[in-house]
Specification:
By secondary structure, the protein is α/β, with parallel strands linked by helices. The protein has eight helices and five strands. It folds into two domains: 149 residues, Vaccinia Virus protein VP39 (Rossmann fold, 3-Layer(aba) Sandwich), CATH 3.40.50.150; 28 residues. Helix content is 49%, strand content 15%. α5 links the parallel β4 and β5. The structure holds S-adenosylmethionine.
Amino acid sequence: MKYFVGEKKCRFNLLVWCKTNCVPATNNSFLPNIEHCLVFKSNGAPKYNDGYELKSKWYISGTNKADKDEYDHPTIKPLELVKRHILHSTQEGDTVLDCFMGSGTTGVACIETNRNFIGVEIDPHYFKIAEDRLKGISQKDRRMEQYEKDNGILNIFDYIDNLEDLKDSLEKPNVNIRKEEQQDVSNTK
Ligand SMILES: C[S@@+](CC[C@H](N)C(=O)[O-])C[C@H]1O[C@@H](n2cnc3c(N)ncnc32)[C@H](O)[C@@H]1O
C-alpha cells in the first residue's frame, strides 16, 4: 500500500473471491470462506476491458478440489478466476508475469487467452509441476508413469518402442548365427 499508493500514486480496488466449499473453521471463529485480491492501477495504464461479469468485484466458486488432486498444489486457484483477471486487464499478445507461479494456473490461463506468460516459482517441486502442466502432463500421468516403472508395466508407447527393439533383436541373432556357421566351417577344416 505504502509503495503502490503512497509512492507510485496508484488507484486500487479490493476484489473478493467467495469460496462455497471452504474448510469448516474450528476454534469458535468465522468460516475462512473469502480471499481478497488487491488490484493497483497506475496513472496512464491501459483501460480495463468492458463486460459486466469481468468488472464484478465478486467471484463465487468452490476451491479447486479437482485441480488440487490433479496438480498437487495446496493453494491452487480456479482457472476461471485467473482467466477473468487476465481478460479484464490485458489484451491478446500482452505479457503476464506471475512471480508466485505455484502449479502454473496463470500460465494455463494465458495460453487459453492468447497472452504471453512469464512465471517464477521458488520451489523446484512446484516448478516441475507447473512445467509439466504447461506441457499438458498432469501429476496423475506422472504417478501412473512411476507406477508402471515400479511394477514393470508397459504403456502403449513403451510397448511400441519395445516392438521396435524386438524387431531389431530378431534381426541381430541371424547375423550372429551366420558368423557362428562360418566359424564352424573353418574349425572342421
Ligand atoms: C499461493 S501459491 C500460488 C498458487 C498458484 N496461483 C496456483 O494456482 O497454483 C504461491 C506460490 O509462491 C511460491 N513462492 C513463495 N515465495 C516465493 C518467492 N520468493 N519467489 C518465487 N516463488 C515463491 C510458493 O512456493 C507457492 O507455490
